[in-house]
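Dear all,

This email documents one entry for the complex benchmark we are building for the journal club exercise. For each entry we list the sequence lines for every component of the assembly. Then comes the predicted three-dimensional structure of the complex as a token string, followed by one or two observations. Please use this as the template for your own entries, and keep the labels exactly as they appear.
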Amino acid sequence: MNFLEERILKDGVVKEGNVLKVDSFLNHQMDIDLINEMGREWKRRFADKNINKILTIEASGIGIACIVAQHFGVPVVFAKKAKSINIDGDVYVAEVKSFTHKKVNQVILSKSFLNSDDHVLLIDDFLANGDALQGLISICNEAGATVEGIGIAIEKGFQIGGTVIRNFGYDLESLAIVEGMNHETGEVFFRKQD
Amino acid sequence: MNFLEERILKDGVVKEGNVLKVDSFLNHQMDIDLINEMGREWKRRFADKNINKILTIEASGIGIACIVAQHFGVPVVFAKKAKSINIDGDVYVAEVKSFTHKKVNQVILSKSFLNSDDHVLLIDDFLANGDALQGLISICNEAGATVEGIGIAIEKGFQIGGTVIRNFGYDLESLAIVEGMNHETGEVFFRKQD
């Protein structure tokens, strides 16, 4: 069991409906030492990749991306979410439909900050069905940037996002993959990783 | 002239209507080395303060707060913005009215992560009229937490926020205070600081 899985068991809270609350250390209150440990682990897992930029999406991805960026010595760019805005200026826009909520959202990024010279590591806190991540990848494709890897803190392995992303051939490294939860006992079950 | 003022002159873009775009290094693409320098400077300015937590607000404040937190060795908590939501659970809510847009927004923070034992440094990227910051202070007051200081990257000195916050007696340290801009020449004029 790795450091993030241990922390989830210690401080995560399981709620009915397969909800895992990690807001005491990851996405509301943020434990910076833990996130630095995540940065070191992703640097180890992506050691052979030549990465010059970290891309994430607001809001909770931003802090994680900034800490992790220090381990790669690169800048961060974050995409913005919008319901539907008037686009002024030169931006990439990806329309992403939420499988769960049927809503369509836009993921937006200035064209100034991503182009075909970029070798990108995508970082986010959670992966479930993965519509936000699909939007980020779509923007990288539009920009001609290379997605060198994807680092996710917590993947919900019982939802489809991780499977789809790996089927497409992306190098997805989730530090904890949750296979199931029991809100009555508080148990969390992880997929075994090497 | 300090490092942030120099960077604004180098890479900031002045647009009509007193708009200063710093999205190439601060709030869309983020220069992590620059933000670490900001962290060192705030640590110097708040050296006599006993700070145990950094509080900010989504979205662009989060990354800055996480990097700065490393210089204080403390966790980050970020408040969330909402138009008007159904509050479930135990949260602080501050209603803040935008002087410019006349809209009312809510600033929301879980009660689990702020209480009367906390000595807080507030961090954000911009201060103009300061309604978001007023909401954060209101939440600290509701929690009984002590606001030890406020660190702002760029203050618009010709708007009212900084004056009000200092009138209330808060220790506000803005790294760059813009007194005026000229979008035709691209000039930016800073308030002299010690």
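Observations: The longest helix of chain A spans residues 32-45. Residues 11 and 140 of chain A are 35 Å apart (CA to CA).
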